[in-house]
Amino acid sequence: MLTDGEVRHALVVVAHPDDVDFQAAGTVASWVRAGVEVAYCVLTDGDAGQSAESRDRVGEARRAEQRAAAAVLGVRDVRFLGYPDGRLEVSVALRRDISRVIREVRPDRVLLQSPEFHWDWVPDTHPDHRAAGEAAWCAVYPDARNPHAHPEIADLAPWTVPETWVVGGPTPDHFVDVTGFVDLKVAALRAHGSQTGHLADLDGHVRSRLAGHARRGGLPDGVLAEAFQVVTTGPAAKEDG
Q1: Whole-prediction pTM
Q2: How many Å from the N-terminal Cα to the C-terminal Cα in the chain?
């Protein structure tokens, strides 16, 4: 597994605004602290979220919330692909669009959502999450590295992602100590006011969830952690510059 010091660029691919912050904001904050340039690729605008507002207005608000949350963690590159919320499908077009972002960012590490069911934590089984995970996997392997995949992006050089982190799956094998980054995680989540404003004890909810991950990972009492499955998906990248 790559150390954070060996990673220059990381790409996070998620279905909705707020997914990265609920699932991995502490880890992202630790990467940024280590000097990693992190980019987000958010596949939908979250416009099907519960609200009395029109879908256009909800989508606009949630994009703004995600940009604000990213800024809390020090992430400046936030991209939205604009696919329909609640109807995400593993289409060739979605695979192509994620592959385009991979070829543009050229990440050493990709973080994506699990395409598997996770029966112990219902929110991770959202169909958009699973579709996002499967499409992103297809982009990591084989699409982004295949020069003959997706002629529409043939102007972008192929890119092999060395390492892929899966979040929200049933079999995590790597637990990141984010104890020192929990306040940042909570602040990022508070930026998603339309989704977290009703939670009276957001801090307590977050800490309880992270403590559970730490226990599962066998970490000492008092440690808070985020959980991933880490997969080697290619040789370590070596580029000049």
Answers
A1: 0.94
A2: 23
